[in-house]
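Async update (no meeting this week)

Hi team, since we skipped the sync, here's where things stand on the single-chain job. The sequence we agreed to prioritize is pasted below, unchanged from the tracker. I ran it this morning and attached the output directly underneath so nobody has to dig for it. Comments welcome in thread, and please keep replies under the output.
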Amino acid sequence: MAQLQRIGIVGGTGYAGAELLRLLSAHPHAEVVAVTSRGDAGTPVADAYPQLRGVIDLDFVEPSTANLVDCDIVFFATPHAAAMHDVPALLEAGKRVIDLSADFRLKDADEWAAWYGVEHVCPELIERAAYGMPELNREQIAGADLVAAPGCYPTAVVLGFKPLIDAGLVDAASLIADAKTGVSGAGKSLKPGFLFAEMQESFKAYGVAGHRHLPEIRQTLGELAGGDVGLTFVPHLVPMIRGIHATLYARLSDSNAGSADALQALYENAYADEPFVDVLPAGAAPETRHVRGGNMCRMAVHRPGGGDTVVVLSVIDNLIKGAAGQAVQCFNLMIGADENCALAAPGPLP
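Output:
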């Protein structure tokens, strides 16, 4: 039976940190004992999040190993290139770590440095990190002391492509991922392109020449395919707060294989035992509002016109299944709790 875990959250004032607080405050095996924030240290957590009044009775503290010494598991909800400075000392102190940033996702430290603009300070820990996508690495996550939670786009894209690649039905050299996200994926920083007056009634692609999630998606799909994959990935920003919709295209290796019924059965069988992947009935189209506030990835598979292109529609809440919820899912595996714990409630509508 899972025991009560004392939890620290580093970076508690960002959107992912806020969702961690909300989810873990209702978790029967978690007691949040430390929440850090450089800018708000000394102020009550409930001042930043009034919805947590009477639920979280803590003040924010400065991020330091000393302030996390009483924790069993520490979640990092910090900007990229921050966690790597503190993780080594926490692991040395016997703490377990779940990092929601990209610091330990890429296996090649030089490639990580090229995409994130700084040298990695503890590349020796990269191989130690379990990639935190339970649908791929459930057993590895359960035994890990360092988990690298996946990015939001990689979660929607990888889960969508996985059954096709596992079955060897498609040309892995010509995959296309056309993905849209809400503005919360950019965090709380004030950037002109994310202001309401700039985003409302508009819609744009970004990172077309190269997005930081591209090498992570390629790495993960390549591991599934047993070799390099060819992926065109184009993210878009849409005027909504949260959610990701990934439209995925893959060309069948054999146009005589993979009828619409066979593809539907492939996806249903692939995810039959997964608590947080829901394959919709044939002909359906998931919407981002159908996953808002929940940890579910909903998807549908199509073969338009009986042609040789398979289209997969994959939707998640970028802050839950794409961040905090998936991290809590990993936490449940690490402590031997039910994987659904604190995550089973459906999201709100409308």
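Quick observations from my side:
The two ends are 37 Å apart (CA to CA).
Residues 153-318 form a domain with the Dihydrodipicolinate Reductase; domain 2 fold (CATH 3.30.360.10).
Reply here if anything looks off.
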